[in-house]
Design brief:
The chain has 224 residues and is of the alpha+beta class. 49% of the residues lie in helices and 16% in strands. It has seven helices and six strands. Strands 1, 2, 3, 4, 5 and 6 form a six-stranded mixed beta sheet that branches. A hairpin with a 3-residue loop joins strand 2 and strand 3. The longest helix has 44 residues. About 12% of the residues have low confidence.
Length: 224
């Protein structure tokens, strides 16, 4: 699994910066302010991973939203597609899917003037086969991007969960990706990726008591 671009020194500096910069909120107690700083910092880390990712595609830098759920743990959500697949990258497949059951074929009418019916039928069949090949290549590429994107998300979670010191061992870190506008997601009927980790496991990994492979196996992954 690839290494993250955030060093522990950078994380410490970010924590200090947030400590100095978010010192308001008179209505919140000290523990609430500390937890809020940690939530905001983890949002920033996930945002940076998404923006710098060669796999995930997000619409802005501040896409991640986090909150603490008392008794359950920290939950973070973001909306994402895949690079060169969504928000303009995969529109031909959406058009194909939204057309007739046998597909939509776009042919320049000037090409049909000198063709008889059998030749036109043959051209339409050829164009459909080309569209199916493009679709298959797009799906294959989308699968590769998605699997690599999941690995990036796992890496970010297990590398930086120790920031969330105010979340008890008995609770969890949960990250939810809402998936949209991508050929692969349409084909597999995927709308949501949810990754959950126990804080006790994440701290065991941070302390070196379990290795990365064991930590990854302890993640709960739900795709629906």
């Amino acid at each position: 699994m690839h290494g993250t671009k955030w060093s522990r020194v950078a994380v410490a500096a970010a924590i200090l910066g947030l400590t100095l910069g978010i010192a308001g909120k008179a209505s919140a107690g000290p523990d609430d302010r500390k937890l809020d700083r940690q939530i905001r910092l983890f949002e920033t880390i996930v945002d940076d991973m998404l923006v710098e990712s060669p796999n995930w595609l997000v619409q802005g830098r501040h896409d991640t939203r986090g909150r603490y759920r008392d008794g359950k743990g920290a939950r973070f959500t973001f909306d994402a597609s895949l690079v060169n697949q969504g928000w303009g990258g995969g529109k031909w497949w959406k058009f194909w899917r939204d057309g007739h059951d046998d597909g939509v074929v776009i042919i320049d009418m000037d090409d049909l003037e000198d063709l008889d019916k059998d030749e036109i039928d043959s051209l339409v069949r050829s164009e459909k086969r080309s569209g199916e090949r493009r679709k298959a290549r797009s799906i294959e590429r989308g699968e590769r991007l998605y699997e690599r994107g999941k690995a990036e998300l796992f890496d970010t979670m297990i590398s930086f969960a120790e920031i969330l010191t105010s979340v008890p061992d008995s609770e969890t870190l949960e990250v939810v990706a809402y998936l949209d506008d991508c050929d692969y997601f349409y084909e597999k009927d995927l709308r949501t990726l949810t990754v959950t980790a126990k804080m006790s496991d994440l701290r065991a990994f941070a302390a070196g008591r379990i290795d990365e492979e064991a930590m990854i196996k302890r993640l709960t992954i739900d795709e629906s």
